[in-house]
Amino acid sequence: MIPHTLQITLSIAVVCYFIIILYYLKRKTLELKYTLVWLAAGLVMGIMVFFPELLVWFVKLLGIESNMNGLYILCIAFIMMILMTLTAIVSRQQYKIRILIQEVSLLEKRIRELEERKPKNAGGDGAA
């Protein structure tokens, strides 16, 4: 299907991809729950590199004329999946930030109200 040298090159690229993902995970640059999407994409890439006949089977299953077109469709599908996942994460974070800002504003208002009610001692009693 694909030349042996290309398969070796792609195998090295997939291994480097996993090393980078695990490096980010170890440094806690990425959280595990967000890394799972990237690991799933890498797993599919690895499967396609080691078993290229699966791509041919997938292309024939969908009725696509060219293997390259099938590969592009698969890549676009994974990119869309990752973008939708990241968009969902950003939306959840934005909602949490909005709630947090509202809670902090209410607490600041409550502190100001309590400080205004606090009786003011003018120089103290002097009784000790």
Written overview of the protein:
- With 128 residues, the protein is mainly alpha-helical.
- Helices cover 80% and strands 0% of the residues.
Please give a quick description of this structure.
The protein has one domain. The protein has 4 helices and no strands.
Q: Whole-Å distance between the termini?
A: 94 Å
Radius of gyration: 28 Å
Question: What is the number of helical segments per DSSP (H or I, 4+ residues)?
Answer: 4
The secondary-structure class comes to: mainly alpha
Order of helices and strands: HHHH
Helix content: over 70%
Q: Which spans have pLDDT < 50 for at least 5 consecutive residues?
A: none
Can you count the beta strands? 0
Q: Assess the beta-strand content as a share of residues.
A: under 5%
Q: What is the global morphology?
A: elongated
Counted up, domains total 1
